[in-house]
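Researcher: Here's a chain I'd like modeled. Treat it as a single chain, no partners, no ligands.
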Amino acid sequence: MTSRRAIRAQVRQLLDALGPRASDVAVSLADAGVQGIQQDSERCALAAYLHVVLGGDSRVRRVKVGTAGVEIWGGAWWPRRVSVPLPTAVRNFVGAFDQGIFPRLLRPAPAEAPQQS
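Model: Modeled as a single isolated chain. Structure tokens:
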């Protein structure tokens, strides 16, 4: 199996294991301890989870979550990104997360630096 196929299969398995409903996906991500930023394809809760799980894999350089799928960029040896469609539950979670439905998964905004006089 090629690296691209292996990564695609691994990501499909990870996404399917998150649960059959958007609320189950939210619980799985909360249990994993991830938080993310709404409307940010590379720093949302799902992207944060995939970065943690795939981050140690030297074949993976970048992960981006869209409304319909995940895109994974590898090293220079991959001529194209790997795209993996989101299962329905995960797709529903992404939409709900971006609407703020799962506030416990939102990364707190960084504190502003005090202004100097």
